[in-house]
């Protein structure tokens, strides 16, 4: 800026001139002297340079500012966009939550309805199957259903009589599940299956140390059944001393655990069952008369299968469906001849025997028709049996069981066992073997 025209500049920049003058703190005369003129020129030059620098910085700042503004507005736009998206998402979530709640309410409503329908269905099934599991439309069975209906709502003791496999256990379950006690358990005790020395503690319970080997306290089955039902199956096999204890319990409604002096009050409904002729057992001194009268409040006698042959086709259908499902077969027909031969047989093992025959037939049948391989001896065995006295019956039972054991190579349980062949529970068969004194040679 060598050609700097101070006058011009000073004229153009009165403010600069004033500033220079002030900085130099000189009067008007001195200011116009050549010495100051030179200094002024330099100063003005410096100021000019400074000003240009300032302007440049200012411009730079402006640019940075604009850039910043741009960035801020971009960022703001981005944030607004994100915010909008978030708001939308929240809205959607809220909507989803709302529809979920609606769906939940709907599911709950459907579930409630399903349960109600289930109950209706169960009632239907119960009607069709007669108390859940008992199949048959014979008049002999209809009389039993009537008795079940009459006695189930009461607390009365029920005595179920009838041959083995006639459905006494099924009737006991039906009575319990149609009673007000149905929400409580039905405890079953098979008096024939329990070892004699354990029956007492099994039934009545025991305190720790009540006898050698009693390491723990045991709650008896009567206590377990409190509020519910106890089913004393094969009551005819109960040892005499326990018969008197049972009699006392029925009379007082209370018991003592073995080894305890404390009496416990128990509210239990008793259903007892036996295939023995209890009157005969009383006569021979094997059953207490007083207990018999306590139990014989409401007797129900199950008709043997041979006296309700019209139920056989229904039972066969039922068991075919049951074992088809269990074994995974699709047997869907049965010849008239087969039905005839099943109806002609005298079924000493009753429904249980029929059930085993059908299970075996389902296993062995080829194709879709049921083939029953068992050969039934139909030559009036029922009439034969009816003519024999009890001793002869026991003898026949002895021989029959022995024959079955020989046939199965002394196997008792399992699908090749004598129990299945005879239509008996393995535990019952074991008890019979013991009672009849059958020993393996
Ligand atoms: N009327 C019936 N309908 C369907 N199954 C039956 C019927 N009677 C008995 N059963 C079945 O036969 C078998 C033997 O019956 P169960 O009640 O144990 O006889 P019991 O106690 O008289 O020896 C069981 O599997 C049972 O479900
Ligand atoms: Mg039984």
Offer a few descriptive terms.
441 residues, alpha/beta, Rossmann fold, Helicase, Ruva Protein, domain 3, 3 domains, 18 helices, 9 strands, 59% helix, elongated, binds adenosine-5'-diphosphate, binds magnesium ion
Hetero groups: adenosine-5'-diphosphate, magnesium ion
What is the CATH architecture term of the largest domain?
Answer: 3-Layer(aba) Sandwich
Number of β-strand runs: 9
N-to-C terminal Cα separation, in Å? Answer: 141 Å
Total number of helices: 18
Structure commentary:
This protein is of the alpha/beta class and 441 residues long. The chain has three domains: 94 residues; 151 residues, Rossmann fold (3-Layer(aba) Sandwich), CATH 3.40.50; 130 residues, Helicase, Ruva Protein, domain 3, CATH 1.10.8.60. 59% of the residues lie in helices and 8% in strands. The strands form three sheets. It has a five-stranded parallel β-sheet with strand order 2-3-6-1-7. Strands 4-5 form a two-stranded antiparallel ribbon. Strands 8-9 form a two-stranded parallel ribbon. Helix 1 crosses helix 2, helix 2 crosses helix 4 and helix 12 packs across helix 14. The longest helix is centred in the N-terminal third of the chain and has 96 residues. It is elongated, with a radius of gyration of 51 Å. The chain binds adenosine-5'-diphosphate and magnesium ion. Magnesium ion binds next to helix 6.
């Amino acid at each position: 800026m060598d050609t700097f025209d101070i006058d011009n500049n000073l004229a153009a920049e009165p403010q600069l001139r004033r500033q220079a003058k002030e900085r130099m703190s000189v009067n008007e005369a001195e200011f116009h002297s050549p010495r100051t003129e030179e200094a002024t020129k330099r100063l003005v030059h410096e100021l000019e340079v400074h000003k240009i620098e300032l302007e440049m910085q200012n411009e730079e700042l402006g640019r940075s500012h604009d850039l910043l503004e741009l960035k801020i507005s971009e960022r703001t736009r981005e944030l607004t966009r994100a915010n909008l998206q978030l708001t939308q998402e929240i809205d959607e979530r809220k909507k989803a939550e709302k529809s979920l709640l609606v769906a939940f309410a709907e599911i709950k409503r459907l579930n409630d309805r399903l349960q109600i329908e289930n109950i209706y269905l169960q009632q239907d099934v119960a009607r069709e199957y007669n108390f859940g599991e008992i199949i048959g439309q014979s008049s002999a069975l209809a009389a039993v259903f009537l008795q079940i209906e009459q006695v189930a709502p009461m607390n009365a003791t029920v005595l179920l009589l009838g041959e083995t496999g006639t459905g006494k256990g099924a009737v006991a379950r039906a009575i319990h599940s149609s009673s007000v006690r149905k929400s409580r358990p039905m405890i079953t005790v098979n008096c024939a299956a329990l070892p004699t020395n354990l029956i007492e503690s099994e039934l009545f319970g025991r305190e720790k140390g009540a006898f050698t080997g009693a390491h723990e306290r045991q709650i008896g089955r009567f206590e377990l059944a409190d509020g519910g039902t106890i089913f004393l199956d094969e009551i005819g096999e109960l040892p005499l001393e326990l018969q008197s204890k049972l009699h006392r319990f029925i009379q007082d409604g209370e018991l003592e655990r073995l080894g305890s002096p404390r009496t416990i009050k128990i509210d239990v409904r008793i259903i007892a069952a036996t295939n023995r002729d209890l009157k005969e057992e009383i006569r021979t001194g094997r059953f207490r008369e007083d207990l018999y009268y306590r139990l014989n409040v409401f007797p129900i006698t199950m008709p043997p299968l041979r006296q309700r042959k019209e139920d056989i086709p229904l039972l066969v259908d039922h068991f075919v469906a049951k074992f088809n499902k269990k074994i995974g077969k699709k047997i869907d027909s049965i010849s008239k001849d087969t039905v005839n031969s099943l109806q002609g047989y005298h079924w000493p093992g009753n429904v249980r025997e029929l059930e085993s025959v059908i299970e075996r037939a389902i296993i062995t049948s080829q194709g879709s028709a049921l083939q029953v391989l068992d050969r039934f001896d139909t030559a009036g065995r029922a009439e034969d049996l009816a003519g024999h006295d009890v001793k002869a019956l026991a003898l026949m039972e002895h021989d029959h069981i022995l024959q079955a054991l020989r046939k199965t190579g002394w196997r008792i349980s399992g699908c090749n066992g004598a129990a299945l062949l005879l239509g008996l529970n393995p535990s019952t068969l074991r008890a019979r073997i013991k009672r009849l004194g059958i020993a393996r040679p």
